[in-house]
Amino acid sequence: MYENIFYAAFFFTAAAAVLIFFMKYVSAVLQARVRLAQDEAYRELAAHAVRAQAEAAAALSAFGAGLAEIQSQLAMVGRILKDVE
Asked: Is 25 helix (H, G, I), strand (E, B) or coil?
C-alpha cells in the first residue's frame, strides 16, 4: 500500500516538474512569436514613414517651385506698375 502512495507522490511530482518546464517552453515560444510580429509591425511602420516623408519632400519641392514662379511673376507685375507710374 505504501509503495503505491510513494509511486503516486513521485509520479505527480515528476509530472508537475515536466508540466512546469513545458509551460515555460511554450511561454518562451509565444513570446518569441509576439516579438517577431512586433518587429515586423515596426518595420512596416518605418517603411510607411519613409514613404510618407519622401512624398512630403516631393510635394514641398513642387510647392517651392510654384512659389518661386509666383514670386517672379509678382516681381514682373511690380516692375510693370512702376513703369506705368
From this structure: helix
Say what the pLDDT of residue 44 is: 96
Other beta carbons within 10 Å of 77: 10
Q: How far is CA 64 from CA 49, 58, 69, 78, in A?
A: 22, 10, 9, 21
Cα–Cα distances (Å) from 40 to 29, 35, 48, 54, 60, in that order, read: 17, 9, 12, 21, 30
Listed as ranges, residues in the chain with pLDDT below 50 are: none
- Report if pTM > 0.70: no
Residue identified by cell 517672379 is 72
